[in-house]
Design a protein that fits this description.
- The chain is an alpha+beta fold.
- A hairpin with a 5-residue loop joins strand 1 and strand 2.
- It has a 6-stranded antiparallel beta sheet with strand order 3-2-1-6-5-4, sandwiched between helices.
- It folds into 3 domains: 140 residues, Beta-Lactamase; 163 residues, GAF domain (Beta-Lactamase); 138 residues, Reverse transcriptase/Diguanylate cyclase domain (Alpha-Beta Plaits), CATH 3.30.70.
- The chain is built from 14 helices and 18 strands.
- About 2% of the residues have low confidence.
- Helix 1 packs parallel to helix 5.
Length: 475
């Protein structure tokens, strides 16, 4: 592999690891006073490939002149002032790292920016500094004819870049654990591998998936500070045991069966400085694993942390969409997406269930007359009132903009009719207060019962809503 190819792979790997919007390598022009981009990986269509940056000009030139990193967190300026974009890109953070020769001469500058994160963490800066050092080494030797050693040292970078991306794009947590135990031998040679999970960073941990071990870890737990894995988790640092010297080492738990491994590696999986798991490697031959392997696997674990963040963000976003943004109550979408589970919980043989819809018919005029704050406060009061007035077990949903749906279980129809009458009396004979304003509420109520009116959740909810609004509604 030629050095230019290695530098391209390093740029790709650095960009994927940092989840950067643009990653670029600037090198000194022939005059030795100007920096020009020679390689880049960018999602922007306005990246300026023809830019020339003088020493000391802007953050990039400043990094080259001072031989120090330039970090712009909470980036609020116009990205076009960086000179590398032809237009503003709404960046959130920017990082420039100098590439130095062993005697301190400037060879170039590595730049990364982000539209997702407002800061480059200390750990990520350290990882990127490692990339910058590797690029500097190759720039220094770029014009030499001897490439044999480079071919032997760096063949795994293409595989590491591709595999890290494969890990980072895991759609769900089970997929992530299965992908993590498939580390290619081109990246690291090993005899056994295991993925350990700490649920939201809490002990005890458990082995999610493994290959190469002769025993089952289903009932095994990992305790903080105990064994190789527990120690790695407690210290939040990689641990390498190059030669166990035929000692019986505890990898996961004292109850595990001895395994014939002489070389071990444990690397933590971290998300926002919080430990989420670990990746364990084992080899039967001594001196098979070392600190360089730990650095290599740390990049994969960083991709795993990014995958966890994306999966949890997507899951939380989907959950938030199922909640009413004003009251926090589950909404119509929640009923649709969890229909089978709710139906199995509510509609049971020999047990009645009742669907009571309450529509606030003059809610739009309250919003129009008194404002959104007043209307929102009133809706939150309604949720509180229904939660207290309706006997348990029950569900309370925000069914539509002005309609609530109460699902009552283990009650007779007569009991629910009595509740309906009490609610009518409350609405007809009482004033409600929100934002120190007295409000009169006009309501319509509708009731549907299981199994008398039907045996389908969607039908019953729509029937109750239809009886309240004098229309028929369904999912």
């Amino acid at each position: 592999m030629k050095n230019p190819d290695i530098l391209t792979h390093l740029i790709e790997l650095a960009g994927n690891t940092a989840n950067a919007y643009t990653t670029a390598l600037f090198q000194l022009d022939i005059d030795g006073k100007t920096l020009v981009p020679t390689r880049h990986l960018s999602l922007s269509k306005s990246f300026n490939e023809n830019v020339r940056i003088g020493m000391g000009q802007g953050p990039i030139g400043k990094s080259a002149l001072t031989r120090n990193a330039v970090i712009l967190d909470q980036f609020e300026g116009d990205a076009s002032n960086l000179k590398i974009y032809k237009s503003d890109e709404n960046l959130k953070s920017f990082l420039a790292l100098p590439l130095l020769s062993p005697d301190g001469n400037i060879l170039g500058v590595l730049t990364l920016d982000s539209k997702e994160s407002y800061v480059f963490s200390q750990k990520l800066q350290k990882i990127m500094t490692g990339f910058a050092e590797q690029m500097a080494w190759h720039l220094l030797h770029e014009e030499t004819a001897v490439t044999v050693d480079a071919d032997r040292s760096w063949p795994f970078f293409k595989e590491l870049s591709a595999y890290s991306r494969f890990v980072a794009e895991s759609p769900q947590l089970p997929d992530l654990s299965q992908r993590l135990i498939q580390v290619p031998p081109e990246i690291l040679k090993y005899d056994a591998i295991a993925v350990v999970e700490l649920d939201e960073g809490r002990f005890p941990g458990r082995v999610l998936a493994h290959r190469g071990f002769s025993q089952d870890f289903e009932n095994l737990t990992i305790e903080e500070g105990k064994g190789l894995t527990g120690s790695c988790a407690k210290n939040n640092q990689p641990i390498v045991i190059s030669d166990a010297e035929d000692r019986e080492l505890t990898i996961f738990n004292e109850d595990e069966e001895p395994e014939p491994f002489q070389s071990l590696l444990a690397v933590p999986i971290v998300l926002r400085d919080a430990l989420r798991g670990a990746l364990i490697f084992a080899c039967q031959e001594p001196d098979s694993l070392d600190a360089d392997d730990a650095d290599r696997i740390s990049i994969i674990c960083a991709s795993a942390g990014a995958a966890i963040y994306c999966i949890e963000t997507r899951r939380n976003w989907q959950y938030d969409r199922s909640l009413d943004q004003i009251t926090g109550a589950p909404n119509h979408r929640f009923l649709i997406e969890h229909r089978e589970a709710i139906q199995g919980e509510i509609l049971k043989e020999n047990q009645e269930a009742h669907f009571l819809a309450v529509q606030l018919t003059n809610l739009p005029s309250i919003y129009e007359t008194h404002g959104t704050d007043c209307g929102d406060q009133l809706l939150r009061q309604m949720i509180s009132m229904f939660s207290k007035a309706a006997p348990s077990p029950k569900y309370v949903f925000k069914y539509s903009d002005n309609t609530f749906l109460l699902i009552l279980m283990e009650r007779t129809r007569e009991e629910v009719l009595s509740l309906e009458a009490r609610l009518r009396h409350v609405f007809e004979n009482n004033q409600f207060y929100a934002q120190s304003k007295s409000l009169s509420l006009k309501t319509d109520l509708g009731l549907a019962s299981y199994p008398a009116d039907g045996k389908d959740l969607a039908l019953l909810a729509g029937l109750a809503y239809g009886r309240a609004t004098q229309t028929f509604a369904s999912f």
